[in-house]
Amino acid sequence: MRFIKLIPNMLTIGNLYCGFLSIGFAASGEYKNAAILIIIGMMFDSMDGRLARMLKVNGALGKELDSLADVVTFGVAPSFLVYYTYFYQFGLLGLAVAGLFPLFGAYRLARFNISSDKTSLNYFIGVPITAAGGILALLTLFGDKIPNIITTVVFTGLCFLMVSRIRIPSFKEIPLPKYGTIVTLFVGSLLFVIYRETKEKFPYLIYIIIPLYIAYLLYRFVKGKNKKDID
């Protein structure tokens, strides 16, 4: 029973570790792998909170740990990825600009953490750092097909959108059969394309998270008729 209570936090730590590995891969020049690890981190991040609520073990520790993991995986890691793939040519200025992304993301997370629980279930204030980091990861994956100027514009826009007051709809309350199936198919197709296209060393962590993620989605799909069992 004690082990079950640790599962959500273990997933959050897995998210954090993906961010660390992504930075290492980016520094080694394996940019596609670095981007894939950020996407894997998103999968971990999508599970930990819901599992904590399902197991009724959500608490302050898990929330704080989740925020710290998000800053690394979806803030620091994407900024390093963008720096190594494009901003490096601007030298110290490029490094300074890349560093703005985790700063804006950390501020956005801190603001989210002090918002009311009821508000956070209906909508987000500003673009979540998870989504922003995932977008940068996708831009890097297909960077050879996307002009650098577009990456720069998107990077800049995401920085300001994270700290903006724009309301972004939250899908936390949408049951899996109506929403999650589409996401599952999209993520599955995306990972298949990644697996087929990349010729670099593929992160073995993907072979662990994919079966786990599929099992989690199947469980939510089966239990989706009873909303209380999920949320």
Automatic annotation (TrEMBL):
Protein's UniProt keywords contain Cytoplasm: no
PROSITE patterns, A to Z: CDP_ALCOHOL_P_TRANSF (PS00379)
TM region positions: 90-109, 121-140, 146-164, 176-195, 201-219
Reactions it catalyzes: a CDP-1,2-diacyl-sn-glycerol + L-serine = a 1,2-diacyl-sn-glycero-3-phospho-L-serine + CMP + H(+)
Membrane topology: Multi-pass membrane protein
Gene Ontology BP, a term: phospholipid biosynthetic process
Subcellular localization: Endomembrane system
Pfam families (UniProt xref): CDP-OH_P_transf
Magnesium keyword on record: no
PANTHER family: CDP-DIACYLGLYCEROL--GLYCEROL-3-PHOSPHATE 3-PHOSPHATIDYLTRANSFERASE-RELATED, CDP-DIACYLGLYCEROL--SERINE O-PHOSPHATIDYLTRANSFERASE
Record's protein name: CDP-diacylglycerol--serine O-phosphatidyltransferase
Organism expressing this protein natively: Pseudoneobacillus rhizosphaerae
Taxonomic classification: Bacteria, Bacillati, Bacillota, Bacilli, Bacillales
